[in-house]
Amino acid sequence: MSEALLLRDVSFRYGAKQALDGVSFAVPRGRFCALLGPNGAGKSTLFSLLTRLLVTREGDIRVAGHDMARAPRAALAKIGVVFQQPTLDLDMTVARNMAYFAALHGISGRAAQAQIDAALERLEMRERAGEKVRNLNGGHRRRMEIARALVHGPELLLLDEPTVGLDTASRLAITEHVHALAGGGLSVLWCTHLVDEIAPEDDVVVLHKGRVLAQKRASELAGGGTLQDAFMEMTGAGQGA
Amino acid sequence: MIGFLTALVAIVRREAARFVNQRSRFFAALVRPLVWLVIFAAGFRAALGVSIIPPYQTYITYEVYILPGLCGMIQLFNGMQSSLSLVYDQEMGSMRLLLTSPLPRWWLLFCKLMAGVAVSILQVYAFLGIAALYGIQLPWEGYLLVFPALIVTGLMLGALGLLISSTVKQLENFAGVMNFVIFPMFFLSSALYPLWKMAESSELLRDICAWNPFTHAVELIRFSLYVTPNLWALTVVVLCFVVFFGLSLWGYDPARGLMRRKGG
Question: Which chain A residues in 108-167 lie under 8 Å from chain B, judged by CB atoms?
Answer without folding.
Answer: 108
